[in-house]
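In response to the reviewer comment on reproducibility (Comment 2.3), we provide here a single inverse folding case reported in full, input and output, so that an independent group could reproduce the run without further information from us. The structure tokens appear first.
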């Protein structure tokens, strides 16, 4: 308003501005209020959805606890997972379903659930735990190349030793002893205080030159 030389000019300018742009400003205010209401409504909807998912997951766990691993519960868990759009509760349900599928010796279903978690989980530590579980399952089935491919994915530093040790175990089973020794050495370098088992594994490969 400094460009106007008198109060009268300022008043006239405000009147013209209000006449020319008043409707636009009002529309903008209305849109802003509607948008704010939409955000609040969205947030409320998100809270309600989260509460509903929590309740459904609790019911799912209660149903699991009430009986041993069975086909009906696996089907129930799959329905929950399919309807949860990859949220945290679905990830937890998939991990439980994988565990029960192993108990039922339905290893393909267990692998399917663990692979789903690897795609949908976001927490690095949870991804690392799932990777190790999947690799162990693949190793136990003799799927050594698949296990090594699973273990090739990076993990947080705190999981490096466990990943390297499991990789060494898989390589020993694949009769790739030089590579196994290298993996065990990496595990040893990143291990905490409990290194006895790793040392035993390395001692068994003492005659092998690391890759």
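Designed residues, in position order:
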């Amino acid at each position: 308003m400094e460009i106007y030389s008198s109060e009268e000019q300022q008043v006239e300018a405000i009147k013209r501005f209000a006449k020319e742009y008043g409707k636009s400003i009002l529309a903008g205010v209305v849109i802003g209020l509607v948008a704010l209401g939409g955000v609040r409504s969205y947030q409320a909807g998100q809270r309600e959805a989260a509460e509903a998912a929590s309740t459904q997951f609790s019911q799912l766990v209660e149903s699991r606890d009430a009986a041993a691993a069975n086909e009906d519960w696996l089907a129930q868990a799959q329905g929950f997972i399919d309807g949860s759009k990859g949220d945290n509760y679905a990830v937890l349900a998939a991990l439980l379903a994988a565990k029960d599928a192993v108990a039922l010796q339905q290893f393909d279903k267990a692998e399917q659930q663990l692979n789903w978690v690897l795609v949908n989980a976001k927490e690095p530590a949870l991804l690392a735990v799932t990777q190790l579980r999947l690799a162990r399952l693949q190793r136990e089935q003799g799927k050594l190349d698949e296990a090594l491919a699973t273990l090739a994915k990076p993990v947080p530093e705190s999981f490096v030793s466990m990943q390297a040790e499991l990789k060494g175990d898989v390589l020993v089973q694949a009769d790739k002893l030089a590579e196994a020794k290298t993996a065990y050495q990496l595990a040893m370098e990143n291990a905490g205080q409990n290194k006895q088992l790793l040392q035993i594994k390395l001692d068994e490969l003492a005659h092998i030159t690391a890759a």
